[in-house]
Amino acid sequence: MTHLERIREKLTEADALLITEEKNQRWAGGFAFTDGYVLVSREKAWLLTDPRYTEAAEASVGPDVTVLRFDSTHPKLPLLKRILEEEKVERLAAEDRHLSYAAFRMLEQQLGRTLLPAGDLLPALRASKDEEELRLMREAQAIADKALEETLPYIRAGMSEKEVAAELVYRMLRNGSEKNSFDPIVVTGQNSSLPHGVPGDRLLREGDFLTIDFGCVYGGYCSDTTRTFAVGSATEEMKNLYALVLEAQLAGIRAARSGISGKEIDEAARKVIRDAGFGDFFGHGFGHSLGLDIHEQPVLNQRGERLMPDGAVVSAEPGIYLPGRFGLRIEDVMILRPDGSEVITKSPKDRLIVL
Description:
The protein is α+β, with helices and mostly antiparallel strands. The chain has 10 helices and 20 strands.
């Protein structure tokens, strides 16, 4: 089924769905910008955009989506109201999870009607990727893998975290990335104990860990990878902790499949780290879903009660962080199926690599 058909299948209580969130507009209509609308009825779909994007929208949307232009002479809301009246839409749903309460109520006043809350309709649909989405995500991961491979030979003691980040971003763009899927995390030494540390002027030193967490966007879809390396040399403690995190990650990957909860997958990995005595130093979840956004639903953590759908794309990223000393994380992206998972990240991780 197309994305529009999947939406219509879920429109059991509403005659149409108004989509205001940018990524949801792209998923449903094939194009998005911040101030646009996508309206999906039981038989038709419209994308409302302004003169800056009309040509690009017409080239991007599918044959089942009608592009309508609004401007200062023909404002957006009167255009939307006209469509609703012409199509005899009585029950209109809107994205209450995206809009603030004030914006939702304002939209009701502007349209002169009560809106039905769409709830998790779109996030739930987006959680299961179709084959085209999976193709784009595999390509995004391949771009990231190649960029890391090309960056590693340039990394050496004396470089700053910022310099490593700059090399990596440059090579992702050279290999086809549209942009970063998030600001890269490049941390070394004591900074590596910060799971979401920001690259700074700290220099790479002999015997330090270097953790690189990065991703790119291709065709609108995100990649996400983390690798941890040793600079110059590694102590036995560093090697042992790396082996422990890798063991935990592989345990989570083995347990991962659709049809079970994120909590169950998280526990398979967490138990390995907890049994080794480092449970207090693994504070975040095992993973998260990703797609058009770098963080989507459902999640793989200790509160992840939702069952994983077939075709979910999720990260596998356990870590150990010793405050004031160092930390490390290993992350892959995988596709979930009823019989297991397919890891689509190909960068080596089978041992601690000394740069």
